[in-house]
Amino acid sequence: MQHVAREMNLSETAFLHPRADGAEAGYELRWFTPTVEVDLCGHATLASAHVLWESGRLAPGDTARFHTRSGLLTAARDGDWIELNFPSTPDEPADPPPGFFEALGVTPRDLRKSRFDYLVELEDEAAVRAVRPDFARLRSFAARGAIVTSRATDGAVDFVSRYFAPAFGIDEDPVTGSTHCCLGPFWSRRLGKQTFVARQVSDRGGVLKVTVDGDRVRIGGQAVTVLRGELLA
Predict the structure, then answer these.
(1) Of 3, 5, 12, 173, which one has the fewest beta carbons inside 10 Å?
(2) Model-level pTM?
């Protein structure tokens, strides 16, 4: 699987395998970057659910059930959106490793750390969009990656973010569902609410719907099929 993911050379490649019928029915799901297997991935889970419905392996009204390294994850259709139910990965205060802010090239308002990532709050959306990390230096820090975030300028959006994970083979991820398991609780405290519209402002970018629900975070996104193929070797 790692060799296939390296050949695909995408942020993550998802691999599905059906489980037996019964209480534990569903699919085994694993995710690989070009260099490592990861514990949690949002956009590849969303794409996996989309493929199961589109291919007829799941009926349109069925909930997709995925057994993963982060436990049972589910996906359900909500009109044109797909809603993922993921575990929260709340942030805690953190001290910056030496040279960390210099590697990101930022002046932070706050620094936090989740189970996976550093979370850096910046002054505004312009600062988030302007970040140009030194990826070689960023690769040396002991974390999956670094999230930068701020309030959004657009009044229809609550917050924006970008995500850098060069140590895992991803300089910048276009849209990252799993980071919103941390961003949701973080902005819930900041803004005093549980439901958000979020935008990841990478070059490709994307919009997500985020709802904090106790120790879970529901993440909504959309998917389209752009390619079908057969791997021969």
Answers:
(1) 3
(2) 0.93
